[in-house]
Design brief:
By secondary structure, the chain is mainly beta. It has a domain at 57-94 and 137-237. The protein has two helices and 14 strands. It has helices at 167-179, 222-234; strands at residues 38-39, 42-44, 69-71, 77-79, 83-90, 94-98, 107-112, 122-123, 129-130, 134-144, 157-163, 188-198, 205-216, 240-241. Strands 5, 6, 7, 10, 11, 12 and 13 form a seven-stranded antiparallel sheet that branches. A three-stranded antiparallel sheet has the order 2-3-4, with no helix packed on it. A hairpin with a 6-residue loop joins strand 12 (188-198) and strand 13 (205-216). The longest helix is centred in the middle third of the chain and has 13 residues, at 167-179.
Length: 267
């Protein structure tokens, strides 16, 4: 082999610029399904989260405190915010059934269909409200602008996944999206902070997300072009957002609407 053809280092082989256009034929990525791609989520440290318990080897994050945010897979701590982000994709609600805590917890059914009897509140023999067997999750795929390296943007693609009491934050985010009018989803900038509330029944405190508007991406900027390309790439990508199995006081009492019905307003 000619010495001129032998690369001298990684820089001779790799570019961070995405190739233009689309390749034809078999791409080699066929057959990768939803269950094959796990996207991290912005975790929220509750009092019962293993990430703040030093005895939970492999899950504990040193220095993480109640109401702190973190990356659920890399364990990178984000503090209490604000984190600024744009939305790459908004998914329909999904439902997951968990085993009872007294049976060890864990996921029983990852894909409960919307409208399934397990997703509905029912009435018990004494007229009491019985919580659903399945938990509703509302997922947004976002690009964190906080700490973004434009040369490695995929490191900042993450899921904002809401359940239980967090559904209030999801509904707030949906409201802010609709208030922007007929603009592309990815152009709006939002921020997420954390706070805490007290459960009226148990008196225990739990962490919550707080969502606010934070402006718009600068038109015709390099970052807007980057986000527009990511919006196009991720719109049809099959992914599963990492599941938050932490239980917090009162979250099972948060009622969600049956499939096809609007959520009650709780802004």
């Amino acid at each position: 082999m000619s010495e001129a053809l032998v690369p001298k280092g990684l820089e001779d082989l790799v570019t961070l610029d995405r190739p233009e256009g689309k390749d034809e034929g078999l791409l080699g990525s066929e057959g990768i399904g939803r269950e094959d791609i796990l996207l991290p989520r912005v975790g929220l440290a509750q009092k019962t989260s293993p990430e703040i318990d030093p005895t939970q080897v492999g899950k504990y994050i040193e220095g993480l405190q109640f109401t702190d945010m973190f990356n659920s897979l890399t364990k990178q701590p984000y503090g209490k915010g604000p984190l600024h982000f744009v939305i790459i994709r908004r998914d329909n609600p999904r439902f997951i059934e968990f085993n009872p805590l007294e049976q060890g917890g864990g996921i029983k059914d990852m894909n409960v269909p919307a409208g399934d009897p397990r997703t509905l509140f029912t009435t018990g023999p004494n007229g009491e409200r019985v919580k659903p067997a399945a938990t509703m999750f509302y997922d947004f795929i976002v690009l964190l602008l906080t700490g973004l390296d434009p040369k490695a943007p995929l490191e900042n693609v993450i899921g904002l996944s809401f359940k239980g009491s967090g559904l209030k934050a999801a509904r707030k985010l949906n409201m802010l999206i609709t208030q922007r009018g007929s603009k592309m989803l990815y152009k709006g900038v939002y921020e997420v902070r954390t706070g805490s509330e007290i459960d009226k029944k148990s008196g225990g405190g739990y962490a919550i997300y707080k969502i606010q508007n934070a402006g718009w991406l600068k038109p015709d900027s390099a970052i807007e072009q980057l986000v527009a390309e990511m919006f196009d790439v991720w719109k049809d990508k099959k992914v599963t957002v990492d599941v938050d199995a932490t239980r917090v006081p009162g979250e099972d009492d948060v009622e969600f609407p049956p499939a096809g019905q609007a959520a009650p307003s709780d802004m």
